[in-house]
Amino acid sequence: MAFVLSSMMEPGTKAPNFRLRDTVSNNFMSLCDIKSDIATVIVFLCNHCPFVQHINPKLVEIANKYQELGVKFIAISSNDVEQSPKDAPVFMKQIAEYHSYPFPYLYDEHQNAALTYEAQSTPDFFVFDHNMECAYSGRFDMTRPCIAKATGQDLCNALDSLIEGKEVDSNQYPSMGSSIIWKKSYLNKKNDFL
Description:
The protein is an alpha+beta fold. It contains six helices and ten strands, in the order E-E-E-H-E-H-E-H-E-H-E-E-E-H-E-H. The model has no long low-confidence stretch (mean pLDDT 94).
């Protein structure tokens, strides 16, 4: 398992749309149907990553809190399940139900969402404002597995600013986690795309 830093999205970038299957409801969902008029958080996760496992309980707590304020959270897994069977949709559903994810957990089977967002790691956070322009990308907080408890401070600071109509702090830091596991047939496509 390779650990990488996220590449981070340029502030002001419009959120690319996607239409992916939610592994819990089995329904297809598109970004334009489930986005928020206040702030939308898109996070790339996977089941097996220790960095994701480290933040999972706090992520659920924060999502519950901010969704009551009108923020939407959307989780996406893009890993190649042939190389990482633990990340298959059936197990995504189990993880979502075990942790009581209050947000959809979408399966990016063809990895197009990860490519268009230039996601690199799990977890990898992208926050969009009411215009669906990138206001924040990067880490959940400064903690790591076995190094302090997850707080979600960086993400919360960005969301608080958006809710209060303030500018999000431009000092943003990349997320660190497990590399997205790319399909072998997509590695050339990824390199061409990026």
